[in-house]
Design brief:
The chain is mainly beta and 677 residues long. 15% of the residues lie in helices and 40% in strands. The strands form 7 sheets. An 8-stranded mixed sheet has the order 3-9-10-6-5-4-7-8. The chain has a 7-stranded antiparallel sheet with strand order 23-22-17-18-19-25-24.
Length: 677
């Protein structure tokens, strides 16, 4: 079945986003009393290991590791073993973090029908011996029915019974509703609430631990842990896409609007995740999961928009309520301590811009930068800067730099573009921000060397809501896809790298980057087949470089269109397959590229090419020097090569004819070029 694709273009968003709270609305009885137990505060300890060692009941995960160590000859005590643990993989830390998350279940009856709602919470203070704990969650998880007038403090309906609330630890113990109260001061303004557990025998018997916290950084690996879909605590993995933004959601009363600050992640967030934790790779809490974006204001579905309230904001709320704040571990993860890959992604974001026209929003990448003059050349998709209402390039093109999306947009001029390649070049000049900010031009990666399953980052103005980052892998190294042209009159064929990194409307024109922060391609499209997710496409960087170089060459001559040499042949790719290179450990796509037909008098005919010739390699010589050489291992290599040609160049193509290799050469003339619209 042929896939349907759509360009990742979005209309500019305004007002409140269409968001879905990531949990159901439930309530519990408030209690103004406070804990009299000093308890064990996680902040007393310098590491997760130390904190675990102080718990009376060890986690089953660490106990199993200890027993395995003893079996292998370890002679120390269990707590000596815990103190000496030095995990370097995420799994060990996340196996601890899950024990700080609880499932929240609320049962209630409306019109004699029993119903159940589910959410999550995070233990941030724990006295294991006493069976006492404070648990932070979302206000909407526990108070909708209270706000709606149900329950003993509202207008009690004759057909509605008061709810019961239960907490379930990760190890399976259920904390009964009589042991749970709502801390006074919790409210809708922050969508945060605090539950207090007092004297719970179930808590004493559990493997529960208190969370420690850390700051997050853009591009950092994170894990969303919560009661997803009410089916028990589960873990999803992603990255921090955006550190701070304000969102507006429907409040717990189901009619008022609540605005608060959040961070964004592309980790999967579902109903029931609300109130759960967003943790870094060391198992430290960086935020309370609260919402997800369901659709843009235009109604278009979006992927990879999960939101969490940063721990710093949680602590501020707890201090306001007069409760203990979440303790910070000494092993705090900051921007400088993030993974190399995450750090590279964060740096790469500084080369991405948001683009707006009078009708739409998209993205672009800084191709070249003159910091002294404040000038920058920006590459984007043709469809981003094309106005369907005007039937031409938009009269108004504005750019916002990374981190300054809320500032006054910078007016950009159109330099040139080619609709058939869905690529365009714009320019901003004399911009003061470029002389003072930490912006940079992209560093090109060789897209021919991209490999299957390689980690990549899609960076762009997703949903027209500011520049953010999503992570994924390369799913197909080289594929040709068809998308509608910018004017809607034809289909455009683009050479794409496929990725499962979340791509949304507004990502168009943004960058696909590898783990070193190098530019792999221009994000251009995603599949719009119903029910299909994780299929996004980027125009490969090598092809982008060839087309952009041609556009800039033409711009120097006063032209706004690309001009490409035409060989006058049609080709057929045979025996498509993937080859594993044992030396590099990489998988490559290879094709046998054969001449299918030939036009008389064409450049190919002048150089002596014939039908059934197999194309092996090509070389461009200019002024006696080789400026470009490439092996023709796929059908897309030759079209990319032709964009590099200039009048007077010598084009040499290595062919195989009758089993013998031959070199065919020709000098390129002005009449060999064809303007590409």
């Amino acid at each position: 079945m042929k896939k349907r694709w759509m360009t990742a273009l979005a209309c500019t968003m305004a007002g409140a986003l269409t968001l879905g709270l990531a949990g159901c609305n439930v309530s519990s009885a408030p209690d103004d009393s406070s804990s009299s137990s000093a308890g064990v505060e996680s902040g007393m300890y310098s590491s997760v290991q130390e904190f675990l060692a102080a718990q009376e009941t060890p986690s089953t995960y660490e106990r199993r590791l200890y027993e395995e160590a003893v079996a292998d000859g370890y002679e120390g005590t269990y707590y000596d073993f815990l103190a000496a643990m030095d995990f370097t993989d995420d799994t060990a830390y996340i196996n601890r973090a899950v024990n700080s998350v609880v499932e929240i279940t609320v049962t209630f009856t409306i019109n004699n029908i029993k119903r159940e709602a589910a959410g999550s919470g995070v233990i941030y203070w724990l006295d294991k011996e006493a069976g006492d704990a404070y648990i932070v969650t979302n206000y909407h998880v526990i108070s909708t029915y209270l706000s709606s007038g149900f329950g003993p403090w509202g207008t009690h309906s004759s057909t509605t019974d008061w709810t019961n609330i239960y907490l379930t630890t990760y190890s399976g113990e259920t904390i009964r509703s009589e042991d749970v109260t709502l801390v006074a001061g919790s409210n809708t303004d922050t969508d945060l609430a605090v539950l207090k557990v007092t004297g719970s025998e179930d808590l004493r018997e559990s493997d529960a631990v208190a969370a420690t916290m850390a700051e997050a950084s853009v591009g950092e690996t994170v894990y969303a842990i919560g009661n997803a879909n009410g089916e028990g605590t589960s873990v999803t993995k992603g990255i921090v896409s955006l550190l701070s933004e304000e969102i507006t959601v429907t409040g717990a009363d189901n009619y008022s609007l609540v605005s608060f600050n959040v961070m964004r992640t592309d980790a999967a967030v579902n109903q029931g995740n609300s109130g759960g934790g967003l943790f870094n790779a060391r198992g430290e809490l960086v935020g309370i999961v609260s919402a997800r974006l369901l659709a843009s204001e235009t109604g278009v579905d979006v992927d990879g928009f999960g939101y969490a309230i940063p721990v710093a904001d949680v602590n501020a709320m707890l201090e306001q309520f007069g409760t203990e704040t979440i303790a910070s571990s000494d092993a705090q993860v900051s921007g400088t301590d993030a993974s190399d890959a995450g750090q590279a992604a964060a740096e790469a974001a500084s080369s991405v811009v948001a683009i707006e026209t009078e009708s739409a929003a998209g993205s672009g990448v800084i191709w070249s930068l003159d910091e002294a003059e404040g000038d920058a050349v920006i590459v984007t998709n043709y469809h981003v800067v094309y106005s369907t209402s005007e039937g031409d390039i938009s009269d108004t093109i504005s750019v916002c730099l990374y981190g300054d999306e809320s500032a006054t947009p910078i007016t950009a001029e159109f330099v040139g573009g080619v609709q058939s390649e869905d690529l365009a070049v714009i320019r901003i000049e004399d911009e003061a921000l470029l002389t003072t900010g930490e912006y940079r031009a992209v560093t090109l990666a060789d897209s021919d060397s991209v490999t299957l399953s390689e980690t990549v980052y899609a960076i762009g103005n997703a949903a027209g809501d500011g520049i953010s980052v999503t992570a994924g892998i390369v799913s197909v190294v080289n594929e040709t896809i068809l998308v509608s042209s910018a004017d809607g009159q034809s289909a455009v064929s683009i050479t794409g790298i496929r990725t499962d990194a979340d791509v949304n409307h507004g990502n168009s024109g943004g960058g696909l980057f590898n783990e070193m922060g190098e530019f792999l391609g221009i994000v251009s499209a995603r599949s719009d087949t119903d029910g299909v997710v994780g299929i996004g496409a980027a125009i490969a960087s090598n092809h982008v470089a060839a087309v952009v170089g041609n556009l800039l060459w033409q711009a120097e001559r006063g032209n706004q269109a690309a001009s490409c040499v035409t060989l006058g042949i049609t080709i057929l790719a045979e025996n498509s397959g993937r080859v594993f290179d044992e030396q590099t450990g990489k998988v490559y796509l290879e094709e046998k590229v054969v001449v299918q037909s030939l036009t008389d008098g064409s450049l190919a005919a002048r150089m002596g090419m014939d039908v059934n010739d197999t194309l092996l390699a090509a070389r461009i010589d200019r002024d006696g020097q080789t400026v470009r050489a490439v092996s023709i291992t796929t059908q897309e290599k030759l079209p990319t090569m032709l964009y590099h040609l200039r009048e007077g160049d010598t084009l040499t193509i290595l062919i195989s004819r009758g089993g013998e290799a031959q070199e065919l050469s020709v000098t390129v003339e002005a009449g060999d070029f064809q303007t590409r619209a």
